[in-house]
Amino acid sequence: MDIAKRFKNNPLIKPQDVKPSLEGAEVECLLNPGTFTFNGKIYLLMRVAERMIQKEGFISTLVVDQASPEGVSIVEFALDDPLLSYDDARVFSYDGKTYLTTLSHLRLAESCDGIHFTAHDKPLILGEGEYETFGVEDCRVTQIDDTYHLTYTAVSEYGPAVGMQSTKDWKTFSKNGVILPPPNKDCAIFDEQVNELYWALHRPVVKVDSWSELNIWIASSPNLKNWGDHLCLAKTRPGMWDSQRIGAGATPIKTDKGWLEIYHGCDESSRYCLGALLLDLNDPTKVIARSEKPIMQPLAQYEQEGFFGNVVFTNGHLVEDDEITVYYGASDTVICAAKLSIPQILASLNINPEQVPELMV
């Protein structure tokens, strides 16, 4: 099943539309933008993945380096070096130390119509400090009153963690540091309190030997900084489209039926699709309903072919009336958009018989 109405202008932004932040670098991929409105415009906070232009016989990448004037430094290794292990387009290791093939930062693109975007020339947020040495990725943007809260993946040798910054004007930022330690990512904060608490979805990684769990969890906080009462909200499902891993998308959407969360899931072939969860309005730890089949699949050519193919992945959307405009990364390469009907999503969900409240009857 696929109920998404893709924009005819897709892909909206391609790597060649974005200026590299460093001389000698190239933009390899654009991924998974957070989305918000500000001063009458629509903004995407894109993940921009860069690498140095590769020389024959070598692999090189960028790492955060506060001692460098540019804030990054270059590391380079010969492909025939026996200490090099390189069998994945996204990651390699040298002498036991892991590196990403690209370094990601967060950069804005703006639009007046939500279709035609202009990317800013410079990064908005670069990796900084010990816990962001491998960059920053996949930002979610939640507006609460007049403040925008940015939760993103901070990547370092310690693994992925959830970093957070806040702003009112998109010029000055309050840095909250790591709010969820590694390994964790896919953090989406609700845009209003429930029972006088803030709530957030997140995805810790539980891995022991060959066994791993990559499920969606929920936590609460009195102040947006200290998170506790962690509960596993939704698990992967063997034999289904979300059998291998799942993770939250953007801010949950409040509907009269419950909190609607668009999430991603992938199967054994690493094919990423989108589905939905419906959470109780007064107790978001309760799952009322869930997608049995994906509501969006990688069907278009630009979703099937790219840096990492067969991927649709969202952590940004806009809501108007009963319609969601989902901005998403396709094949880990380009940024696209599609529209989804909230009533159509709700009608497609499979109700959890253990959590059916009166409003669903």
Describe this structure in words.
With 361 residues, the chain is mainly beta. It has a single domain (5-360), classed as Tachylectin-2, Chain A. Helix content is 3%, strand content 52%. It has helices at residues 301-304, 342-348; strands at 5-6, 25-38, 41-52, 58-64, 72-78, 84-88, 91-94, 97-100, 103-111, 118-119, 136-144, 147-156, 159-167, 174-180, 184-189, 198-204, 206-208, 211-213, 216-221, 228-234, 245-248, 253-255, 258-266, 272-279, 287-290, 312-320, 323-330, 334-341, 350-351. The strands form 8 sheets. Strands 21, 22, 23, 24, 25 and 29 form a 6-stranded antiparallel β-sheet that branches. The protein is globular and about 60 Å long. Mean pLDDT is 94; it is low at 357-361.
CATH architecture: 5 Propeller
**Class by SSE composition:** mainly beta
Which term fits the overall shape? globular
The radius of gyration computed from the alpha-carbon positions, rounded to a whole number of angstroms, is 20 Å
| Sheet with the most strands, sense and barrel status | 6 strands, antiparallel
Distance between the termini: 25 Å
CATH class: Mainly Beta
Quantity of strands, as a count: 29
Mean pLDDT, as a whole number? 94
Number of domains: 1
CATH fold topology: Tachylectin-2, Chain A
Uncertain segments are: 357-361
Tell me the fraction of residues in β-strands, as a range.
over 45%
Give the name of the CATH superfamily: Glycosyl hydrolase domain, family 43
- Percentage of helical residues? under 10%
